[in-house]
Structure prediction request, 138 residues.
Amino acid sequence: MVKDDCIFCKLAHGEIPSTTIYEDESFRVYFDIAPATKGHCLIIPKEHYADIFEIDPKTAGKLFELATAVAKGLKKVLGCDGMNIMQNNGSIAGQTVFHFHLHLIPRYEGDGIDFHYAHSEANMEELAQIAKEIRANI
Ligand code: 5GP
Ligand code: ZN
Prediction:
């Protein structure tokens, strides 16, 4: 499915230009237009899925398989020291384009990027209960 007003659907099918690293019939991998670091790229399915809650598991699995190859290619070519894999779902989580995409963000010593957040203390009883409920729903 292609969504008419979706910028990444247009990009997936070449209607909007992108610096593409790789493409096949199901996926496109291209550089982010506003990169966090050198080599920051995105992997998208060509089919429209808004987010993790919509994407079908087989497509997601194949996409992540592709991500392992792209990550190795980025590391080999750019010599990064590490990499963050990020995937935002919903505005509250920082998603701005509502077509599923995986960020690959190469990391370099001294790049100044900070993804850290404050940690809280876990309530073990509550977690055990929630784990049980989730288990019944997957
Ligand atoms: P999100 O915030 O939804 O997780 O990430 C969206 C990403 O898409 C952002 O990092 C943004 O820079 C990138 N982006 C938005 N529009 C375009 C575009 O037209 N071309 C490319 N290559 N990247 C885009
Ligand atoms: Zn789309």
Q: What stands out?
A: The CA atoms of residues 53 and 99 lie 11 Å apart.
